[in-house]
Amino acid sequence: MTDVQTRTEAETQHQCGSTGGTSTRRCILVGAGAIGATAVLAACGTSSSGTNPNGTDFDSDPVPAGSTAAGSGDSGDSGGDSGGGEVVAAAADVTVGGGLITDKLVVTQPTEGTYKAFSKVCTHQGCEVSEIKDGQIICRCHNSFFSVKDGAPTSGPAQQPLAETKVELDGDNIVIAA
Fold first, then answer.
1. Which of 78, 122, 123, 166 is the most buried (most CB within 10 A)?
2. How do residues 26-52 score in pLDDT, each as one tens digit?
């Protein structure tokens, strides 16, 4: 008589590589779970590249909240005859109640003739602010909003104010205060 096989070759191939008789459905669910867990862990991981989602370095002039920005204070600038420091913007380019985002700073004019400057690096996760609208400095990475008056957070996940750099009007220019 011939041997009777209890399993077909196709059934043997559907055991997920084990000999425990695991069903095809179980193999698929275990595989999907493993793929899902891998995706979650990858999304939660941190990168050592130092680059944020909008492609700029997190450490491009980072300033801790409450500190003065690089280039402010005593930087060896004697002030010269004009008494002013590094030019950050032309006064005519900064609207009342609004502002201007430069290479390094956000320059605002909350009231006529009063100029403020803040770090353009958001205190939430290091993205650069991208817009000034309706008296607010806006970081679109995670929708943090800051006041043009003092850099304080007004809504969103940011909890610390933007670091302020003291500026003053020198002729037609806004300069870093000496």
1. 122
2. 767 666 666 766 665 565 554 444 444
